[in-house]
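Hi team,

Below is the intake form for Alpha/beta hydrolase from Hydrogenophaga crassostreae. Please confirm the fields before the structure is written into the shared record.

FORM ID: S-0412
PROTEIN: Alpha/beta hydrolase
ORGANISM: Hydrogenophaga crassostreae
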Amino acid sequence: MFMSNSNFAHVVGSGPRHVIALNGWFGHAQGWGPFVQSLDTKSFTYAFMDQRGYGKRKGSGGPYTFAQIASDALALADELGWKTFALMGHSMGGGAIQMVLADAPDRVQALVGITPVPASGVPFDEAGWGFFSSAAKDVGARREILNITTGGRLTGTWLDAMAQSSLVHTDIEAFDAYLTAWAKTPFAERIQGKALPVLVVAGEHDPALGAETCKATWLQHYPNARLEVMSNAGHYPMDETPVALATVVEAFLREAMPG
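The structure came back. Fields below:
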């Protein structure tokens, strides 16, 4: 498997189909779990990008916004020499890839949203907002969010490791600011009706961004969107069902990006 690192991305593979991947709130460029081991690196090249304040970009400073993530993703594509590419995003990254589409629609060949945030934002009540906001400084809150969003069904060993990884690989100020970015940055009017191929992957056990939420948002926003529900997965199918996820994603991308 070919791997290289640009200034702020982890590049895997050497294939002709190009994919930029944006991680979720708890992730980073090298935090996509065992999913990466099942990717077809002869047919695809994946660039897993660190957002500002995450992974190799800890200490970079902001701004910690979807607009900045999109700008950085397009700069990465330019650095790699990719005129066109597909975008894959998990959770928060699923919202951010849509901002890339809004800013550069002629360059984006397809979207893959994995348990993704919609372009309309995510509603919170006051108590929920307070709880999620506390996670910036409270690793226990991070662990509980992981537990809730995977249906309260996974081993504490995994929950502990994921919460600690998120703490180690993110700046607190970035983690805090990105909550506002993914929850309270609605821009659906900028992507509504775009006719590119879109795959939306929902987890069977995801209580917030599951199939019904995806049907009410992504499938309404994109006329050519299709939904895949991953059995035995919650909000983190990259860890929970990695082989099945890689199979579904690459089957879609092969169809959307003929080699």
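SUMMARY LINE: The first strand starts at residue 3 and ends at 5.

Thanks, M.
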